[in-house]
Amino acid sequence: MVYAIVRAGGRQEKVSVGDTIVINRVAGEAGDSVGFAPVLLVDGSTVTSAKDELDKVKVTAEIVESLRGPKIRILKYKNKTGYKKRQGHRQELTKLKVTGIA
User: Fold this and answer.
1) CA dihedral over 60, 66, 70, 74, signed as positive or negative
2) Angle formed at CA 24 by CA 97 and CA 11, multiple of 5 degrees
3) What pTM value is reported for the model?
4) 62/21 Cα distance (integer angstroms)
């Protein structure tokens, strides 16, 4: 089984061909192709981590859709002062399908 560890969306993700991952928003429309540089590559029993060998490897993925994460509610409160502030946040996300490791 071939899989790679790639740096995507500020995190490292373990991917293989056919996997679907959700990362922070990437610019592009549905159907566009995105490339990643692997940090580590495992091909069966062979593990590749040398930088000069990893420069030859490219991981490609296709954008499936753009979506938003769950609502996070932030509440700030200070006792005895009458101060309270409510804020919400939804993270912009992109769903990707890995199409190739070559």
Assistant:
1) positive
2) 90
3) 0.83
4) 10
Distances (CA, A) of 23 to 12, 39, 82, 88: 10, 16, 39, 20
**Burial group, residue 36, by CB count within 10 angstroms (0-12, 13-18, 19+):** buried
Q: Residue 50: name the closest of 37, 35, 40 by CA.
A: 40
Task: Return d(Cα 67, Cα 28) in angstroms, integer.
Answer: 13
Beta strands in 1-102, from DSSP E residues, in sequence order = 2-8, 11-15, 20-24, 33-36, 38-43, 46-48, 59-68, 72-78, 83-89, 92-101
Which residue type is seen at 74?
I
Smallest CA-to-CA distance from 15 within 34, 51, 32, 40 is with 40
Contact 40, 4 (CB under 8 A): yes
Q: pLDDT tens digits for 11-70?
A: 999 999 999 999 999 999 999 999 998 999 888 788 999 988 899 999 999 999 999 999
